[in-house]
Amino acid sequence: MHITAAVTRSPSQMFCVEEVELDAPREDEVLVKIDAVGLCHTDIVVAEGVLPIPLPGVLGHEGAGIVEAVGAKVTKLKKGDRVVMTFNFCGKCVQCLKGAPSYCVNFMPLNYAPVRGDGSHTLCACGTGSEISGCFFGQSSFASYALGNERNVIKVADDVPLTFLGPLGCGFQTGAGAVMRSLAAEAGSGIIVFGGGPVGLSAVMGAVVQGCKTIILVEPMAERRALGLELGATHVIDPKAEDVVARARAIVSEGVNYAVDTSGAIVAMEAALGCLGMRGTLALIGVPSNPAAALPLNVLAALSSGLTIKAVIEGDSNPEEFIPQLVELYKAGRFPIDKLITAYPFAEINKAVDEQKRGLCVKAVLTF
């Protein structure tokens, strides 16, 4: 079928909105008519060539829409269901069977390979039939229609605008899940979050849901610090104007229980370790701009304090359970994701990328 998609043709070039051909859904696939799709940092770094995906290709992995058709073997979804698309996983490996699908042993090929498991393409150019990379995170939802499967297509409530829901598939799920699932922060605990982007602010909202007593946001942009306070942070720190560790220790002298880094900056990770109290835990979410970057660690200090450092993928969540939970929290006014979102018409994807990179919006969502 002919669809409209934003095609990435070469690294660091603008997206080209054009007509392409999408394969029909197979017996185990789901065809989703995309209503809105979030713009994630991962999409941008792939488009910039930081992660090597064969180009031309169609990215996008925070799709939300309505099921248009399902294959014969699909049992959990039907035409007309409102859904959020999330990361892909096999559902059969040891990690999936343990309820940890974000650590699926097949995560890399299922989410970054440009083809189906059998090597077939889902996308090609109209007219010429030349192949286009698809299947990005099992969806490639920078398009009017996308193919997924019933593992990574999650049914959601009918009474919430789809515009707000796409980022639950990755960014919001990652930030909130780091606090609510991976760290499982206890009520009354203290937490510090580095980075006031969509992932970091989702972590702040997750900390509020968990009942954390002290919630510190470290963010250089004044507007985002103000938004953090509005969302429930008890304190904010400008890392350009203050010594983060000294300020955090002034707020909680014994150190916080948890730290979350969404920035990927080594200097932030080092500061996060300095803010932790005895037996504190640092959750690493942000991807360093330099893949070879190393975190210096004072082993004696870590040993004497009983510190834990853990990497977190997709919030350690099970999307089939966690995404509907976040939707219910949003409906109850306890996870106000709408305050983070700026909507752009799909045709303005390049404007959205530019404004998100410049910090003019927190979370860009492209709408059809």
TrEMBL record:
Pfam families hit by this protein: ADH_N (PF08240), ADH_zinc_N (PF00107)
Protein species of origin: Acidocella aquatica
SUPFAM superfamilies in UniProt: GroES-like, NAD(P)-binding Rossmann-fold domains
Keywords recorded for this protein, A-Z: Metal-binding, Oxidoreductase, Zinc
Alphabetical list of CDD domains matching this protein: benzyl_alcohol_DH
Superkingdom of origin organism: Bacteria
Ranges where the Enoyl reductase (ER) domain occurs: 9-366
Cofactor: Zn(2+)
InterPro entries to which the protein is assigned, alphabetical: ADH-like_C (IPR013149), ADH-like_N (IPR013154), ADH_Zn_CS (IPR002328), ER (IPR020843), GroES-like_sf (IPR011032), NAD(P)-bd_dom_sf (IPR036291)
Protein name: Aryl-alcohol dehydrogenase
Similarity section: Belongs to the zinc-containing alcohol dehydrogenase family.
Keyword Disulfide bond: no
SMART domains membership: PKS_ER (SM00829)
Highest classification ranks of the organism: Bacteria, Pseudomonadati, Pseudomonadota, Alphaproteobacteria, Acetobacterales
Record flagged with keyword Zinc: yes
